[in-house]
Amino acid sequence: MHANFSILGKQTTNCDALICHEDFLNNEKQINNILIADKFVKILASSTNNKTNNFDGILKLPASLSEINFIIENLTAKKKFNLNSSIEIKNYILDKNEKKLSNKNSFIFLTEKEIQLLELFLNTKKPISKNKIQSLVWNYSSDADTHTVETHIYRLRKKIIDKFFDQNFILNNKKGYYL
Length: 179
Fold this sequence. Notes:
By secondary structure, the chain is an alpha/beta fold. It has two domains: 5-84, no CATH class; 90-178, Winged helix-like DNA-binding domain superfamily/Winged helix DNA-binding domain (Arc Repressor Mutant, subunit A, Orthogonal Bundle), CATH 1.10.10.10. The chain has helices at 28-36, 65-85, 112-123, 130-138, 148-164; strands at 5-7, 17-21, 41-46, 57-60, 86-89, 92-95, 100-103, 106-109, 171-173, 176-178. A hairpin with a 2-residue loop joins β7 (100-103) and β8. α3 packs across α4.
């Protein structure tokens, strides 16, 4: 894995990780900049173990290049994994790790195909035809005569209606299915 990183004071728009030395924390304006920088991993380089809530990890100084590389790669991978696993769909959160869709304090468990369907709908802003879904999710030919798509969508809708009473989660029209 390769991670881009930045040391505060340099350009930080295209990085995966930000390393901040403990002496830098004396500047309140710069601390506020760290607090709002949520798109990358924030690492505190410190000679003490005083980790603050503003940082994702601590780099104990002095540190070798391999230690710096290790902490950047691990924290970056963890952050990317967590960002990819929790997806907002309408008023719901799809947790791909736990395979569940939740809304407030309620949740339902989903199958892998149901998750693939939801991701497909989420990534496509217009209705998707049955044949296209069949091809993208199940790798079936559009000529195949099957009710797989309708069956899976029916079951997924039923789960959502039974638990969340949401009749409008998955919609369809002449052009296909959509969220």
